[in-house]
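Objective 1.3, modelling of assemblies. Example input:
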Amino acid sequence: MISDKTIGRLSLYRRLLNGLEQSGQATVFSHEVASMAGVTAAQVRRDVMSIGFSGSPAKGYGVSELAEAISTVLYRGTTQTGALIGVGNLGRALLAYFVGRHPKLSIRAAFDRDPAKTNRVINGCRCYPNNQLAEVVRTEGIQVGVITVPAGEAQSAANDLCQAGILGLLNFAPVRLWVPAHVYVEDLDVSQSLERVAYFAGQRAADKEVTK
Amino acid sequence: MISDKTIGRLSLYRRLLNGLEQSGQATVFSHEVASMAGVTAAQVRRDVMSIGFSGSPAKGYGVSELAEAISTVLYRGTTQTGALIGVGNLGRALLAYFVGRHPKLSIRAAFDRDPAKTNRVINGCRCYPNNQLAEVVRTEGIQVGVITVPAGEAQSAANDLCQAGILGLLNFAPVRLWVPAHVYVEDLDVSQSLERVAYFAGQRAADKEVTK
DNA sequence: GCCTGTGAAGCTATTCACAGCT
DNA sequence: AGCTGTGAATAGCTTCACAGGC
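Predicted structure (tokens):
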């Protein structure tokens, strides 16, 4: 019912609101959030509307109330749990970034097929060998998988995770994953983003030449 | 003229075509590319049309010809150069991922303000102190910046890069950057993606409960 | 028969614009 | 006066569907 784009923006708003909360601001107008998030005020109001939250024309939105309302939608009152597979450079970077930082979204386990990396704690996260995946996913009740293995192993990692009962995947490998229809997949393709930036940067450079 | 979404897909098609080339396949139909890329065949044909390339109804598209045509659009015949700022976990992961891998898109320099990380080669990339940024960007003719510093330093890093004359930014920090209008910015917000996956995974789980 | 190229239709997402409130 | 909430309009993107070709 709520679109993926809206969910993404709500996640961003929530982080921004947490910042405002920290700084002691009690209420906020749609155009203030909009400017921080880089979207229009109308967009913010629509997104807020989509979760059934209301502000007041006089005061705007209550900062903590709105943050709380977004949290309720995003996490449904429970803490979501995740696992990461592939403890290479990127995997470790993500563990360092996430572990312990997010109260409602916790990476509970990491997996790797390299025995040198398993059975110890890396960046605050317990690391298991791949063959314990199904068991750990079940006992920890993990719903989300983060795939940071090389491209050639990604499909097999996805298979294992889906088999284990995972319902959502965040995939950093530059390959299309084939998964059961009930599993949600989001691809985060860094090469693609970088190539896009290079293209539009080059375009700007070409425009400059022309305008000269 | 070509939309950012189309550019992203073209980048993906090019990688897929390179794979086919490797395996010796000479021609390919739109529906084959579509299935590999996870889009519709009509979408592929539109995207190909947007760069003015043509296939034949009998044989489909020439694999290397199409790959070449996409490269020409994306890189304009020159090699695009980039610099990365922030040699932490994530920065190193990206250096390991990109350096030397991509013939037309080369990360030429990394920057960090920590003296322990500078004036040496990290994952194949020369690492300079921040105060040499302007000079190196100029001498290497760098057009694209990749920001992997902590959120609090991102705006200042962006300022330095824009000042130095960069035209495109790939930003991993979860903050909105304010840059001159002629600079293209793409944000890659990992938290946002993960929260989105968690949301839709949770949704699927809830659906299951209901259908039970 | 099965493909490409493409006008036209259909969808989705965003923005406009204004009524209603304080 | 300046805000929110929202129907209506717009813009942008994707898919349909079919003419034309081998």
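Chain B touches chain A through 61 residues (CB under 8 Å).
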